[in-house]
Amino acid sequence: MTTGTVTLAPLRHADVPRCHEIELALFPGDDPWSENAFHSELDNGNYYIGAYDGDELIGYAGLAASQHEASVHTIAVIGHWQGRGVGKMLLRDLLARVDEIGVPVYLEVRTDNEPAIAMYKAHGFEQLGLRRRYYQPSGADAYTMGRPAQSV
Which residues form the N-acetyltransferase domain (predicted)? Predict the structure, then answer.
C-alpha cells in the first residue's frame, strides 16, 4: 500500500535496528522493545508491517492473531511523522488482516495518549478496562480497548 511518499511493506529482520532506535526515541520513560523482542516477533510468524519514506523506516505495527482473537502488539511512528496519517495507515492495514480472519481485536494504550485513543475509537474500538501501572518502569496506566469481529 502506498499513500503519498509513504509505502507499507512487510517488516524485515534488517529493519530491527531501526525499530529499536524508534522505540528508544518514543518510549524513553518505559521499557522499549529490544532488538531480540522484534526478532522473536518476526520469527514467531506474527504479522508486522513497516511504513517507509523511500528506504527509511518511519513506523511499524504488529499483530498476533489466532482463530479466536487478535491482539495489536505495537504501533509506532517516529515523531516528525506523527499526525500525518501514518499511524492510521498502519492500523487500517492491521485491521484489514484481522477482518480477513473475522475475529475481535484487542490492544492496550496509555491513558494519556489522546491522539491514539481517538484514532482507535474512530476505527470502532471501545474502552473495555483499565490496567493500572501497565507500562514500566514509568507506572503509566493503560486502557484495554477492543473492537468486535467484523464481517468482510
Answer: 6-150
Residue 2 is predicted with a pLDDT of: 45
- The grid cell for 37 is 523482542
Q: CA-to-CA distance for 141 and 88, rounded, in angstroms?
A: 23
Give the dihedral sign, CA 36/38/39/44: positive
**What are the start-end ranges of the E strands in the chain?**
2-3, 6-10, 47-53, 56-65, 70-77, 105-110, 126-135, 140-147
**Residue written as grid cell 501501572:** 133
Query: How many residues are recorded in the chain?
Result: 152
Give the three-class secondary structure for 100.
Answer: helix
pTM of the model: 0.92
**Cα distance between residue 152 and residue 135, in whole Å:** 34
70-128: per-residue pLDDT in tens?
999 999 999 999 999 999 999 999 999 999 999 999 999 999 999 999 999 999 999 99
